[in-house]
């Protein structure tokens, strides 16, 4: 179902206000890309938007993401209304932060991705889960989990300012502001530079 020109214009107008890092022609391109991708997929959601698998394929092909746990989290972060489907609005607004977000927006976004259970903290277990997936297994004798536990300890030492054994948003934000490289401390969830 192709959008009428008028409807497209209205969508472009409203999205270039809400997705403030894109100009109108970029918004229009993203809407068209969205429609093209949706049209290619023959599934029951197609009328509404991307389902998880389609989104994952897009993250993989467009941004080189490979980690399933993180891709799943990125999906949930984009899927603002939790209907398991990414609408065109969620797509453009999500990409606005994903591709061009301010440091502040990216800190919020990464924190949300890493807070696996959505309780407002990144716990030791959550760090362990994510690091376990994003690190390559070394073919060595020692237990790989030990190395990951060490990394989690290092991360907590460096980032847990209030020493409660988990990272609150304030901890995370302060750590990343002091050292920008910590933004993706627990796995790649932003596109690489290219």
TrEMBL record:
Keywords: Calcium, Metal-binding, Repeat
SMART domains linked: EFh (SM00054)
Protein origin, superkingdom: Eukaryota
CDD domains associated with the record: EFh (cd00051)
UniProt xrefs under InterPro entries: EF-hand-dom_pair (IPR011992), EF_Hand_1_Ca_BS (IPR018247), EF_hand_dom (IPR002048), Recoverin (IPR028846)
Stretches assigned to the EF-hand domain: 66-101, 102-137, 147-182
A molecular function GO annotation: calcium ion binding
PROSITE patterns noted in UniProt: EF_HAND_1 (PS00018), EF_HAND_2 (PS50222)
PANTHER family: CALAXIN (PTHR23055:SF60), CALCIUM BINDING PROTEINS (PTHR23055)
Protein name: EFCB1 protein
Provenance organism: Chionis minor (Black-faced sheathbill)
Lineage: Eukaryota, Metazoa, Chordata, Craniata, Vertebrata
């Amino acid at each position: 179902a192709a959008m009428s020109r008028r409807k497209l214009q209205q969508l472009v107008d409203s999205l270039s206000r809400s997705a403030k890092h894109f100009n109108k022609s970029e918004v229009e391109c993203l809407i068209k890309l969205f429609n093209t991708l949706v049209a290619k997929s023959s599934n029951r959601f197609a009328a509404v938007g991307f389902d998880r698998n389609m989104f994952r394929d897009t993250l993989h092909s467009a941004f080189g993401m490979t980690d399933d746990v993180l891709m799943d989290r990125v999906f949930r972060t984009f899927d603002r209304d939790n209907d398991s489907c990414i609408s065109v609005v969620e797509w453009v607004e999500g990409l606005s932060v994903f591709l061009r977000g301010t440091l502040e927006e990216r800190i919020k976004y990464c924190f949300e991705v890493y807070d696996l259970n959505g309780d407002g903290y990144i716990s030791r277990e959550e760090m362990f889960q994510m690091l376990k997936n994003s690190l390559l297994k070394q073919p060595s004798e020692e237990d790989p989990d030990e190395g990951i536990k060490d990394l989690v300890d290092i991360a907590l030492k460096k980032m847990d300012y209030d020493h409660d054994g988990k990272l609150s948003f304030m901890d995370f934000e302060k750590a990343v502001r002091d050292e920008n490289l910590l933004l993706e401390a627990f796995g790649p969830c932003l596109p690489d530079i290219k």
